[in-house]
Amino acid sequence: MKRVVRLAAIMAVLMMGILISSNASLAKDGITTLKKNKVYKAYDVTGDGKADKIKVISKTKKKNDMNTMKIMINGKQAFKHKEYCGTPYVSIIQLEDGQNMISVFHSGLNDYGVRTINTYVDSKWKKIMNLNSTKIEDKYDGPAGSPIAVSGNAVTIQFGCQSAMTGISKYSMDYLYTDGKLELQTPIADYAILKLGKGEQDFKYDETMIARMEMDVYNQVEEGRTVAFKIKKDDQVVFHKIRRINGRPWYQVSVGENTGWLECGEFKYHEYEEGDDEYDGSSEYFHNAAFAG
Q1: Angle at 138 between CA 135 and CA 140, to 5 degrees
Q2: Whole-angstrom Cα distance, residue 67 to residue 38?
């Protein structure tokens, strides 16, 4: 009997160690998506040095399959989304200095809904970044973004651009957290394109597009630009970076050894022709560009 009790005690200690280790691993810097209707006790988000009780409460309305969402911190409502549509995603962003932020994504009755990064300032919930309306350059409000990685006290945010020329493209920018703000660190000229939409399937990506028509490529995006070379029909065009001038995307592209900047053209829909395969896009500019307006 004593042996059984001793073994039970040892097992309890081991389980305690596993739980402590598990909670400690959650506290490493990174991004952790919280499961809805589950209480988390491993993160200090209020900044008082103590782990808080965090719960994302989401309910689905059977009538229209809509989801309500609110975030509870230590039993008190910190955030509630009045509009509801789709599955809510709430993540903890953990920085190297111990600062924890809360990322909220919940699509609404419009295209974007809520996409924010939040933290506590003076014991109060504060939105420090609106990912639906992000200044990129020339006071242009860019497309919606989502945090995808953390390095030290910097957060990498991935953005999506849906243009009439290339379809869907994605690129990322780094923001450094200092004094309660996320400050852009990525130089304007280095907005690297991560992925380009391919064909009618938005989740197939490729950095290379096949030209349907001849297009001018310029030596720079600034005033005084001149044509550096021309893209010819059926050329394989590699996309590298993206800029936005007065709200219009410009792409740094290369064909062979030639590199320059291609201005996003106006929307032109390509009618399917005999010989087009299922991945052939609907852009008049490129074969494998997904439809986008």
Answers
A1: 45
A2: 16
